[in-house]
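Lab notebook page, bench 4
Experiment: in silico fold of construct C2
Operator: M.H.
Input chain length: 226 residues
Purpose: comparison with the prior construct
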Amino acid sequence: MLDLFESIMPSTGITPSIFIILVLISLVLGSIIALIHTYKNDYTRSFVMTLAILPAVVSVVILMVNGNIGAGVAVAGAFSLVRFRSAPGTAREIVAIFVAMGLGLILGMGYVGYAALFTVLIGLAILCYSRFGFDGKKPQKKNLKITIPENLDYSDVFDEIFEKYTSSYKLKQVKTSNMGSLFKLSYEVVLKNLSSEKNFIDELRTRNGNLEISVSEYETHNTEQL
């Protein structure tokens, strides 16, 4: 049992059989990490594939420089891969990349037992946090813009509809348009049910005379661009 937590790297250096074993184990454990990442999470197929392969890549880098002065430089270079992602990632994606790299480092040193233990512990932690809502998403805010005629009192004309379709709403900005004949209202709203968005807009149209209405993803600076 204790042998499982000792390095399988022979004192004479890496051999082809050890190389193949470590790469295969890296791919298996990397695939487990990738599958765990998909649990209750939004993901892309390319990112999941990257997670599955990354431990094998890092372990090979460490294997090739094991015992060499350049090991420190290689490790730093491996971790710098995070900054070269093509798109900004979420916190969970960044953590997943570091987990995959950490797994690769452990395997690159030949510690198969510790790598498996690391995968189990981290996997259980991620599953538990996801199960109990530690990574739960906050209600999605929307920017709502409504154009109304100047003779319509906007102070409470939409309150009934907002109460029906939103869990919260707030008037952020009022702006005149078209030589003062129109008002443009900007609201911050959180819909109770995203599938009811069309019905929500349809009912608003009956109050604003079928003038322009738009709903967009929430941005803190958006109200300044009316």
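Observations: The longest strand covers residues 166-177. The CA atoms of residues 131 and 151 lie 51 Å apart.
Next step: discuss at group meeting.
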